[in-house]
UniProtKB/TrEMBL annotation:
Similarity section: Belongs to the protein kinase superfamily. STE Ser/Thr protein kinase family. STE20 subfamily.
Pfam families linked to this entry: Pkinase
Species per Swiss-Prot/TrEMBL record: Tilletia horrida
Protein name listed in UniProt: Protein kinase domain-containing protein
Protein kinase domain ranges (all copies): 19-113
Gene Ontology MF terms in the entry: ATP binding; protein kinase activity
Lineage top rank: taxon: Eukaryota
InterPro entries: Kinase-like_dom_sf, PAK3-like, Prot_kinase_dom
Record keywords: ATP-binding, Nucleotide-binding
Length: 113
C-alpha cells in the first residue's frame, strides 16, 4: 500500500532526530501514533505521523495543529517537543500522556461510572 511506504519513510527519520521506536499506540485513516524514547535522555514521547495529501488544506491543518501546541504552553496541555516533514508526512513529537489519549481517559471514566 502506498501510504505504508510513506509511514516507513517517516519512521526512518526518527533515529536522525535522536528517537528510538518502541511501539505503535494508535492508527487511523490519516496517521499513526507511536511511542518513542529520546536517546541520551531515556525519556518517552508520543510521535504522530500524519500523511499529507499534498493539498494546501491538509498541510495547513497539520501546521495549525503544530502552531496551536506551540502557543498553548500550559502544564495541563500536552507539550509539543518538535516537528518535521518528510516528502509526504508530517512528524509531530509530543509529550507522552501517562493515561493515554483524551478519548482513553473519557472512556475509562464512563466505564468507572
Amino acid at each position: 500500500m502506498w501510504s505504508q511506504q510513506y509511514f516507513e519513510q517517516a519512521l526512518r527519520t526518527l533515529p536522525e532526530h535522536g528517537y528510538q521506536l518502541r511501539e505503535q499506540l494508535r492508527h487511523g485513516a490519516f496517521g499513526q501514533v507511536f511511542e518513542v524514547t529520546k536517546r541520551g535522555f531515556n525519556t518517552r514521547h508520543a510521535v504522530k505521523i500524519a500523511i499529507t495529501n499534498g493539498r494546501y488544506t491538509n498541510t495547513n491543518d497539520l501546521q495549525n495543529e503544530i502552531d496551536l501546541h506551540q502557543k498553548a504552553a500550559n502544564s495541563n496541555i500536552i507539550e509539543l517537543q518538535e516537528s518535521w516533514t518528510t516528502p509526504r508526512c508530517v512528524v509531530i513529537v509530543m509529550e507522552l500522556a501517562a493515561f493515554g489519549s483524551l478519548q482513553d481517559f473519557v472512556e475509562s471514566r464512563k466505564a468507572a461510572g
